[in-house]
Write a structure and sequence with these properties.
Oligomer: single chain
CATH architecture of the largest domain: Sandwich
Low-confidence stretches: 1-24, 579-680
Strand order of the largest sheet: 7-6-11-4-3-13-16-15
Shape: globular
Radius of gyration: 30 Å
Helix content: 10-25%
Strand content: 35-45%
Mean pLDDT: 78
Number of helices: 10
Structural class: mainly beta
CATH topology of the largest domain: Immunoglobulin-like
Number of domains: 5
Number of strands: 59
Largest sheet: 8 strands, mixed
CATH class of the largest domain: Mainly Beta
Amino acid sequence: MGRTSVQIALIGLMVALAASLPNKDDWDIYSFHINSTVTSRYATTVITSRVANRMNESKEIQFHVRIPKNAFISKFRMFIDGQVYDGNVKEKEQAKRQYTAAVSRGESAGIVSSVGRTLEEFKTSVTISAHKKVTFELTYEELMKRTLGKYELQIHARPMQPVRDFKVDVHIQEKAGISFMDVKGGLSTNALANAITQILTDKQAWVYFYPTEDQQKACDSCSAQGLNGDLVIVYDVNRNSTLGDIMVSKGYFVHHFAPSNLTRIPKNVVFVIDRSGSMHGRKIQQTRAALIRILGDLAEGDHFGLITFDDGIYHWKQELVQATSENLQSAKTFAREITDRGGTDINRAVLEGTRMLNAHPREGSASILILLTDGDPTSGVTNIEQIHSNIRQAIAGKFPLYCLGFGYDVNFEFLEKMALQNNGVARRIYEDSDADIQLKGFYEEVATPLLTDVTMSYKGASNLTETIFSQYYNGSEIVVAGQIDDNNLDTFIPEAVAISATERRTFSKTSSPVETTDTLSENQIQRVWAYLTVKQLLQKELQMSGPEKEEVKKKTLELSLKYSFVTPHTSMVVTKPPGETTAVLHKPKEGKQASQGRLSRVFHSSHISYGAQRPLHHPGGRRKQAMYPASRPTAQLEDYVVDMLAGSPGGFLRTSHQPVVPLLQDVQILLRPTFEAATLAPRLHRFLIETNNSALPLCFDIAGHPFIKLLHHPSRELFVNGELNSVTSAVFKKIVIHFEADKHVEVDAKGVTVRVGENTTRLTGQDMITADSLTVITRSKEIDIAAGDTRMVIIVHEMAGEEFLWPVMRQKPSVTDLEGILALKPAGYEDVDGFPNGKKKIKDQEIAVTRTSTVDYSISPPEMIVCWLMAADSALQRPLNDFLVAQL
């Protein structure tokens, strides 16, 4: 709120350690990633932080995440000792009790809960066992709000130490087209500017922020503790004067209405300024400065009035006057002489401002009442409910009331309720050095009304979000969502009716046809509807009391639980079940997590089966001997698999029947000179399928070195195939993408070849090429590819000096005919007879399983994960041959 527009904050994960921390030697954040995807104004942000506890005892670490009140956390995951723990949204008190019980048992646990009613801060606390690593993955979603003609995506990074692997990735995709994009904030200047890469095409934009450890100490507010500042991505979309953009998917719609080329409506505005004793000092000084600047921005066609109050009322003029230069000069003189004294009679002051506006009706104008106060009512009428009733009756819906609460000790709930009851909003003004800029910034948001009495109507639709708006301001946007009856577009007729400066206008034509969108991820339109509905129910609940309030609260809670939104009524919690130790990890005893809108993640590990003894060799000359059976039936090879995670400090070597052996940085596995290649069994490549609850994932093996069908998107003519490596310990050696017949991308560990028609380009290092709806971006250890409505990132890993590839879906199309490994949806299974080991039931079929481990290569650096191994056909619920292709 301390900017000239409402900021869409995507605040990076901040680590704040109590008690014995901040001793950096106690803990280490060795990886910190923020990935934000903005598609059609809806932002999904994933924050991933990997932390190691260096102590010889368990340590509780608190993670603070500051996000805007308009955002909802929707997913929280922990990766501990190879086990994945998914968060579950629960009613707040229930979640808190469960977390407290887990911590008292000395178990690792995490909780995400809101702090305060405005959702300004979320917090997780996790107890990490001695010398263990934990990965935290936090996701939140937000419908971005347009303010002063732009959207702002703000990242505040303060990881408390320089991080070796620090990345911020932002991808924006807008069907309407991006009119401009810029990167601002303290993290974009001076020495850090070189760490930013920004790319803009017609409908897509990318921003990458990859500062080195030295650069993380170089910003103005940075120090030896690393980054501490903002990265702000600013953009807007193309617009015109029609009904706007309407996106439809699976029976839900979202309508963005922001017509341009409208004539400004003259306004009538009354400022009601608190001058009570509590405003003493900097508050009153900043209020005077802001008011003088605001008066200078009034247009000559505007009319205005000034009221100051303590336990009495003081007018500059008894009635509204025109904003002539003479009147403005006189008003500024009045503002300069405002001093603090006395009590706080809010009721009388707001009623007087209402009287002035009601006494000055002007056809073709828009009226606004703005209250600034820092305290509770202390004189006159002090009963809050009575004040609300008095003001609601006096305003009677004729104009909006905006309430600005100055400082942290203001009764913000009182102001927020009063504003909402009168078609306005409340805003907290933070008592910082730029408070006068905050005040002026809010005024600029409402300074230029373009439409009044806006009514949005949708024939053939139901379950609509708010459809009536008192005013539409320049640079803002109206958003409505709902359900289309019977999913029938033929009977769906949207329309907007409003009063402009000159006439009553009807908007009935969209800038693009109303059609099913293919640019949003699965169920995203439905999630936007749920997001808006929950947000507006929370506002409605604040205005009510008694049984009506409880009914709205119940509905809010139901939707929050259904869509896994962390709201003031819910928390997200992850715990280990009672009786378990940190060495034996099973799924939590929590209920199922909502899975709407989830993209399936598929992991892979390369496995080697040896028929002889092999030494583990370190370049320094030290050797460790690892013994494995010389023979083993092929059908049971998975029991003696070697998982390697080399080239990464803290990696480890594991077999299912041997203890974990720590690996040094450059450990290599060497074969005896007498070892013959012919003794190698067919190489097994292991894939994982994520589950749709907190259970262990499923895994299956593919033998040999076939070509894999990674993705086939028929309606987009998109084919993605990968070649597995059959000689080294690598995973994919090559990935090929065919798109729209004439576009081909071939990726290997050394670079990317792009062929468009007859033209061939080789990309290496930091490079980019775009052709129509195909964009390929290469950077260090990652290749970012966008093909129509599909986006994937190919990660380049390195193991023992060998580089290999692994693809990760970042945006999956919302269609039903996708095929391939990357198109797999989360799996679902049940324990047979309630016992976790031995067998699982999938779609009424009992399947033999083995508990084992593998490596998740979809993240960097990779991490070990536990899974249930079963036959490929059983895990896929289809013949494995359906996922193999004859050639790339």
